[in-house]
Structures are given as structure tokens and as C-alpha cells.
Write a structure and sequence with these properties.
It is built from 11 helices and 12 strands. By secondary structure, the protein is α+β, with helices and mostly antiparallel strands. It has 2 domains: 154 residues, PurM-like, N-terminal domain (60s Ribosomal Protein L30, Chain: A); 167 residues, PurM-like C-terminal domain (Phosphoribosyl-aminoimidazole Synthetase, Chain A, domain 2), CATH 3.90.650.10.
Length: 346
Amino acid sequence: MQDQKSNQQDRAPLGQDGEEGLIARHFAPLTRDWPGAFNLSDDCAAIRPAPGQELILKTDPVRAGVHFFPDDAPQDIAWKALAVNVSDLAAKAARPLAYLLAISFPEKPSGDWLRAFTAGLDRAQREFGCVLIGGDTDRAPGPLSIAVTAIGEAPAGRMIRRGGAMPGDLLFVSGTLGDAATGLMLRSGSESTKNWPIDAAARYALIDRYLRPIPRLGLRAGLRASANAAMDISDGLAKDLARLCRASGCSARVELAALPRSIPVDGLLEVDPGHIETLIGAGDDYEILASVPPKNAESFVALATAGGVPVAAIGSITEIKDASTVSFFDAEGAPFSPRRMGYDHF
């Protein structure tokens, strides 16, 4: 009878044992006995960085209808909420330690949903090497909203900033571009995607790139040893590269033919060359953009490869010559003007 009662409580909406019971049952196990989490029984958490290290912090909320579909699987929502924050730590060459989670439910969640959501968090934090140490839960009008504050550490004064790029540096990007945005189009089920030359396995893989971005944590050694500047690509290559250039006081030249793409996206470009706009201006890639001095390029590629992260040189950092911060050139060397520079929340 006890097992049956516990099962009924898990499947019931939040209630009866209230917020404290929800936290104790579903979220406290994610602390993995981190001493400063106090098993989520206090109002604050405590972190003591290792000697010679400093804490690196990032908050990037996600919201239903904006960053994910309301009917996405809870495991996928959880993974993405944590991954998009850890991606920024990866770009700063920081090692993830812990995270805070603030989640606002539009209605009382069921035990089934919470169990799936926390299972997704558990899998993600095991993959990324961090634990939950605090946060808050509440109920508020509007879509489901999840705010994660990711906490990492890096050697004091060694965080890789976006403002250190120098003219002459080579521009590298990790992974492949445009997969997540292509997956989003497929996930949306728009009419234009139905005739794309993409088989079922490739469609699944592309949608998964949208649902579950992969923070490039294996790039940490390469960034620390070789890069002048770095940031992750969340709002589109053009927009985020322009941000890096403005912070560094420089411009950039990008060769479209050098942009790395997956086999399905490359095949799509053959029948729809206009899809190149997706690689340039669409968000959700969560790949890392790095500015590397030419003398460090070989070691950067070697360290990236050793970390399991493919990287490709896509252009270079240049002196500012005109109002154009980022310039794109096609395979024939002709200037290319993208219709869209990237995603903008406002």
C-alpha cells in the first residue's frame, strides 16, 4: 500500500506537501551532497573556489514559446535550460561547478512532468560536470520560464573575454553552423521543409541539435593556451561576431565557403543556396567563436582535436576601415550582404 501511495503522490499535481515537498523530492537529489548546497534546506548556497581560481557566472533564462516549444519533452527542456548557460562557461574556458535554478510554472506541475524534467537535469549536469545548489520555484501567469545561473571557475585573471581579438588573428568556429536553426524549421513543421532532401535519420539529428545543444567544454585547453578572444554563438554568427568585434575595436572578414556544415545542411545548400542565410544569421548554434593568433593556430587545432571538438578557420580579424564591422565574401571573392544579421529579443 505504501508503494501505491507514493506512486499516486508522484503522479499528483503539486499540492498536499507544497513547494518544500516538491523541492525535497525532485530537486534536492540533484545537489549530489554538495556541501554548500545544504540539501536545498537554506535560503542561500555557499561556494569556496579552489586556490588561484575565480568564479565565472552566467545567467541566461529560457521561456516556452521563445526558446523551446511548450510541448517539448521535459527532459529536452531541462537539458537546454542548463546547456545554454554552460555553453557560455565553455566559451570563457571555465570549468562548470554548480548552478542555481529558478523556475516559474504557469500551473501546478504533475509528478510525472517533474520526474522527467529532473531526470533531464540529472543527465545534463552529469554530462557537464556540475550540480544544483539552490534556486527557487513559484507559480506565475504566463508561459513556463526557467532561469539558470551557471557557476564555473577559471584561473584568476585568465577568463577568455570577447574583447581581446587583434587584427591578424584567425577566426575559428567549433562544430557546424546552421544545424539547430534547420532543426527548428523541421520541428516547426513548416510547409517549405517537406520537400527538403533530408532523410528521417538526418531530420531527427538536426531536430536534436535544436533541442539539445552541446556545450563545447572540450575546447577549454585550446582556448586557454591559444585564444585572444572567444564567445559562444547563440544569436547567429553575424550578430555575435559583430559583438566580438565591437568589444575588441576591430572588424572581421568571413569566407562563406569556409563555414563548417553538416552533411544534411550541405546537401540542402546544393538545392537551396539561399539557405546560407541560416548559417549566417540564425541562432541556437551554441558553437564557440574564437580569435587565435596565427602562431597559435596549429596548437589550437591540435588541442581542440584532443578535446574532441572539431574547429574550422572561417576568416580573420582586420583593422576597422569603414562602418561595416563584419564583411562576408562568397567563393569568388565577391562581397555578400546577408538579409538578416541574427536573432534580436527586441
